[in-house]
Each structure stands twice: as C-alpha cells, then as structure tokens.
Specification:
seven-stranded mixed sheet, about 400 residues, alpha/beta, 2 domains, 14 helices, Rossmann fold, single chain, seven-stranded parallel sheet
C-alpha cells in the first residue's frame, strides 16, 4: 500500500491557514514560515555519471611529516577529494582560504592535515583554534584530529556546552596545541579569563554560514578580535551570503577562493510527502514505514526536544531501536547517541535541528520529517544527511490531508 501522495495545488480559505501541513497548528509568528507541500516533492535527478574528479595529487605527494603520512595510510586514504586536493597546497603555503564545499566532501581533513603538520613541526601550544556551530560537529572534528595526530604527542581540547566547564578549564591549563570549540563556550572561557588567544597562528571557521544562521556573528567578531592580525584564517562555508561575504572581507587577508560546490544535495534526494489526518494516523504510518526493510538507517526530525524524546521513547516501546539527540541531553549523552546511530546499533535517530547540518553520518537511507522544519533552508539541511557521496537518498515529510 502506498502512503505517498503527490502534492495537490493549495486551496484557499481560512481553514487552510489555521493549521500547518502536519495537521497541527502553524507556528506562531517568529517560529517559522509556512512551506507549501509542493516544496517537499522532488524526484531525484539521475546522476549522470558525474565526471569523477581527477585529483592532481596523491596524499603521498603532499609534504607532510612521515608520522602524518603513516596515519593517513592507516585510514586507507590515497587520493584526496577535490577540496583536499585544491586547498591543502595553499594552506601549507600559509595562505588565507575561502573554501566553498558541500557537506560530506572531506573539508575537515583539508584543514586539519596542514594544521597537524604545522603543530608537529613547531610544537607551539594554543596556536590553533577551530570554531564550529554545534557540539556534534566540534566533537567530530576533534575525533578526526586525534586520528591524524596519533602517536605524535599533539593534544587538543574540546570546548563545548553541555560538558563540565571546570574540566575544560583544567584541560586549557595543560596547554593543548589546538582548541576545537563552539562560539558560545569559547566566549564563556574568554570572559572567565582562562582562554587567551594571543598566540593563535591559525583560525578556522567551519560551517561559517551555519554559525551566522545561529546568531553567532557577534561572538565570532569578538573571538577573532582576540587573535593576532597576522594569523592564517581558513574559512569554510557551503554558501556565500552577503553576511558571509562581509565576514570574509573583515577577517581574511588576500584570500584564495576554492569552490568545489556541486549541485545542491537535494537534487540527489527523492522527496515526497506522506498525507495524514491525525496524530494517531501519523504515528501509525511512521511505524508502518519503519517496519519495512528498505528503511535501513533513518534520521527522524522533530520540532521540540520534548517531542523528540517522547517519539524516541514510543519507538523503543514498539521494539524499534531508537536514540534521541536534542538540547536537553548532556554532551556525553549526545555523543553516545550519535555513536550508536553511526555504528548501526540503533536503526533510528530522532533529532531536533541540532543534527541537521555538518555531521558526517554515513549511509543514511531515509530522512523523515515527522515535524516540518521552520524554514525551507532548514529542510534542505535536514535532507542533506542522505543522498551523499553520489548515492540517491530518500526524504519524506508528513503533511496534513487537504
């Protein structure tokens, strides 16, 4: 039985405006804008064997220390991705970079490998900082740093909310070589006068557009003002908005722009709607879908942290192994949930938009919007968790019957 419907033209009338497409009342002003159901329907474009990128280097060609090359080889990496191939030589040369790349293209390694190489050569403590919009992305970057620097006696400190600040203060006093942080916790530690950035030689702003979306522009300006003017700045973003462009002019010196953006991820995702009459029918159809073999690894989005937790609890009671990730979870709980999902110990991860961008979660077969996103941009970020690395993904959004 098919429960997917093609979106019908919108009908007029006050009744339609009263509720959103999930059969629930539309968000109050300020919570988000109405998105017509037709925006959630799209057949994935057949990927014309996208011309495979022909790298001009192998990893072995880059002038990294042998200890780094050994760590690269241990991961089985031989040929760099486009952003790695094009950015690494310029970063090694000390240039400022504007890197424009879709998520899932390997940009973390593009900036981390040259930083690890630099730290290994000069051993300077607190000389690099990476800012990321979310705890999960910062954790992911820290994990990658530890892989690439294994056995090299280089140390990082992760500064994020949801984790004990006193532990982070103690870690800073041990003088790590690099700090990987979210803007909010960085500001807290600067205000407490326990984080000093006057020795920073490399500043990385990762997912810069997302940090601006989240309202961190003031924090970023303050943090950047604490670093030396002659630092190297590496700026990575999926998009260039006027606000992002303004920041690049403020923070970077004669930057080299490297763009490897391809078609929007959403073009490689089959998108459709699931029409429901009530909350009960919505839950029934969700359980029906999750009972099918094709729903192998599912990222399920809800609107609120309370709603996400309740939904995850319901799924577990129905025998569907599920984890939840939202703002009420501690950092260790969020890390554990994410690991369980990545390692296929849990088939479903129920999340608020905190998980919608920047995370590298392999092989997500389906994204389901149990609750609709606040904006269409948020929708695109959500469904970008599937259909990655040339694969076709599937996204389904619950809407109210009309």
């Amino acid at each position: 039985m098919s429960y997917y419907r093609k979106s019908r033209p919108q009908r007029g009338g006050q009744g339609n405006r009263a509720r959103n497409n999930s059969g629930q009342r539309r968000p109050k002003k300020g919570r988000g804008a109405y998105i017509h159901p037709s925006k959630f329907v799209n057949q994935a474009k057949t990927v014309v064997t996208a011309e495979e990128y022909q790298a001009t280097h192998n990893f072995a060609d880059f002038p990294f220390a042998e200890a780094i090359q050994a760590n690269i080889r241990s991961r089985g990496y031989k040929i760099p991705s486009a952003i790695q191939d094009q950015a690494i030589p310029h970063i090694l040369a000390g240039e400022d970079i504007i890197g424009l790349a879709n998520t899932g293209t390997g940009k973390t390694a593009a900036f981390l490998l040259p930083i690890v190489n630099r730290l290994y050569a000069n051993r300077k403590t607190l000389s690099a900082i990476v800012l990321a919009p979310t705890r999960e992305l910062a954790q992911q970057i820290d994990d990658q740093f530890r892989i690439f620097s294994r056995g090299m006696k280089l140390y990082s400190t992760l500064l994020v909310g949801g984790a004990p600040i006193n532990r982070q203060i103690a870690d800073l006093r041990r003088r790590p070589h690099i700090v990987i942080a979210t803007p909010g916790r960085t500001m807290d530690l600067i205000k407490r006068k326990v984080l000093h950035l006057d020795g920073i030689e490399v500043l990385v702003l990762d997912e810069a557009d997302r940090m601006l979306d989240m309202g961190f522009v003031g924090d970023i300006r303050t943090i950047t003002s604490q670093t030396p003017e002659n630092r190297q700045t590496l700026f990575f973003s999926a998009t260039i908005t006027p606000q992002v462009e303004q920041l690049t002019k403020e923070f970077l010196r004669n930057p080299r722009t490297i763009s490897v953006r391809t078609a929007d991820t959403s073009e490689s995702v089959d998108q459709n709607v699931v029409e429901v009459d009530s909350k009960e029918e919505k839950m029934e159809k969700l359980l029906e879908m999750l009972g099918r073999d094709e729903f192998e690894k599912v990222l399920l989005f809800g609107e609120t942290k309370y709603g996400v937790q309740r939904l995850s609890d319901k799924l577990n009671k129905q025998g569907i192994n599920s984890v939840a990730i939202h703002g009420n979870k501690s950092q260790s709980q969020r890390k554990s949930a994410l690991k369980s999902f990545k390692d296929n110990q849990s088939r479903v991860m129920v999340a608020t938009d905190v998980a919608a961008r920047g995370l590298d979660i392999p092989n997500v077969s389906h994204v389901i919007n149990f609750d609709q996103p606040a904006t269409y941009e948020d929708y695109v970020h959500r469904i970008g968790r599937t259909g990655r690395a040339g694969a076709t993904g599937k996204a389904l959004t619950f809407v109210g019957k009309r």
